[in-house]
Amino acid sequence: MASLRRSHRGRQRAGVLLVLVIAVAAALVATSHRTGGAPAAPPASHSPASHSPASRSPAARPKKTAKHARPAKSRTAKAAPARSRSAASASQLSLVVEPDAGPGPVYALLRAARHSLDVEIYELEDDQAAAILAADARRGVRVRVLLDANFVGRYNEPACSYLRAHGVAVRWAPSQFDVTHEKAIVADDRLAAIMTMNLTARYYASSREFIALDRNPADVAAVEATFADDWADGGLPPSSPADLVWSPGAQDALVALIASARHELLIENEEMSDPAVTAALQAAAHRGVRVEVVMTRQSEWAGAFDALARAGVAVATYDSSAPLYIHAKAIVVDPGRPQARVFIGSQNFSVASLLYNRELGLITSRPAIVDRVAAIIRRDGAGATPWRP
Questions:
Q1: pLDDT attached to residue 235
Q2: pLDDT tens digit string along 61-80?
């Protein structure tokens, strides 16, 4: 397997479900240590990959040029009427922070499925995850996996071949999307994991990531229905709850979220090339909002960083060789205030990611999650180097 980071730019019975919930909750409490166990025997078609800092070199990353000249595609989910989360529904949402938790919570989710498991993922290069999916299929779980072919197909091919040889249904994602960059798992039609991370083992120990574990029935149904649509390579996705953010077509929703800030914005992302997002961040700073952006430094974002810093945005970056790589995609609006919200998802701040890819994110106002993500971004920012234009 290639050792290079490729950003694209990453119904069980009640008793069994309770075990899963407890397992995930334990992982959340113990985020200061790794939870993964001993690795399973790797699939024969895979080879070990390196965790070396050199694998994060920007020069080594394949690039996909954003298509600025094209109008936005209309193939996107239609939002259902907006709804707020009650205290009861809020308990259906929890957060995993990586690399603090390690891969244990994701492996637990994969193993816990008893009837069905649907995975739509940009990149799958994890021997243990592939082995778990194969074991699920052997014990009678209907496992379906959708992988991107347009940008990282050659890297997904070994996992695709291994899974097919072990009874897992695998398809390449629809070609109608520039890239399928979504990172989502639905287990037993009862729990959806909406992730910023890919299933790429060599980055687990070094990448900042967030995973929203969503048990809200309407959200889970929408994620599953959209997976079914993509699996069939069909037309428009179904309508979706307003808290889910789908690409193609996510630009307006994320720009509106940024524009709603009145006091503070905290941002982590891997890319910074969408003009609408950078303009919204500049506008927020100009109207007196404290804006902090934390990213891994790459030369292609230097112009955007300069413009943001001159507008009063506090930009802080990590070197590409640093132990922590910012791969998360998160927006925190006015933490600690009644109107606080947070976005977590797969969308990078690029034209392609927001307008042309298949992507999925979630916006929630649950205080525990808003506060946790805000604390992480502030901590990451404190460890990064201020950007000077």
A1: 61
A2: 344 433 333 333 334 445 44
Structure tokens at 319: 């070197």
**C-alpha 74, offset from chain centre:** 22
Treating both helix axes as pointing N-terminal to C-terminal, what angle do 275-286 and 302-310 enclose, rounded to 10 degrees? 20
Q: Domain range spanning residue 367?
A: 246-386
- Which residues on adjacent β-strands are paired with residue 213? 94, 193
Do 250 and 198 share a structural domain? no
Asked if residue 223 lies in contact with residue 341, where contact means CB atoms within 8 angstroms, the answer is no
The radius of gyration of the chain's CA atoms, rounded to the nearest angstrom, is 19
Per the prediction, the chain carries an average pLDDT of: 83
Domain edge (last residue) among 242, 275, 303:
242
Model confidence at 239, pLDDT cuts 50, 70, 90, reads confident
- Prediction pTM value: 0.81
- Please report, for the domain that includes residue 108, its CATH number: 3.30.870.10
Q: What is the dihedral of CA 289, 290, 291, 297, to 10 degrees?
A: 160
